Amino acid sequence: MIGPTGVGKTTTLAKLAAECMLQQKKSVAFITTDTYRIAAIDQLKTYAKILDAPIEVCYNIEDFKEAKQKLQHFDHVYIDTAGRNFRNLQYVKDLQSIIDFDQEMETFLVLAATSKLEDMLAVYEQFSLLHVDKLIITKLDETATKGALLDLMVKTKKGIAYTTHGQNVPDDIQHSTSERIIDEILR
């Protein structure tokens, strides 16, 4: 999970992990590189404890490689990253110095539906230096206008994998389909 500050990356990560574990009966683990935000590690540790899942904290690429090796036997390893000001390109480059974005990884850019289209496109542009596979749109319950989602998908040529509709873990997340996105936009 990558993205700017305040979009709900950590909560969304917990929702996905809980869904994977509870509904699909898969084993999950966590890696966090969010050593920047106060209490970020504690927040993810709380989710990990509830799910009885291991968590590794990484401060650099060596830590990340060790954690990845240590957790390789899990079905899914969810990686949380620090949200930073996307306008500062150095913050995006810092992610490359901590995480080995390789072929075994699926990278989701998390964006808030409450953002303006121009801002979401600017975020995408900055984070596209990293490989972005799909989008996750959060906070759909906090906005009345959702037409920007269609423009976002067309302009980025990226699909929306999941949407979130509240704070409840694991309930307030949906796997996206074209029908669901159209329904959200037209609702």
UniProtKB/TrEMBL annotation:
The compartments listed are:
Cell membrane
Question: Topology in the membrane?
Answer: Peripheral membrane protein
Q: Which keywords does the record carry?
A: Bacterial flagellum biogenesis, Bacterial flagellum protein export, Cell membrane, GTP-binding, Membrane, Nucleotide-binding, Protein transport, Transport
Residue spans making up a coiled coil are: none
Residue span(s) of domain SRP54-type proteins GTP-binding = 1-187
**InterPro entries in the record:** FlhF__GTPase_dom, P-loop_NTPase, SRP54_GTPase_dom
Quick check: keyword GTP-binding in the entry? yes
- Give the family per the record: Belongs to the GTP-binding SRP family.
What is the stated purpose of this protein? Necessary for flagellar biosynthesis. May be involved in translocation of the flagellum.
Protein name, as recorded: Flagellar biosynthesis protein FlhF
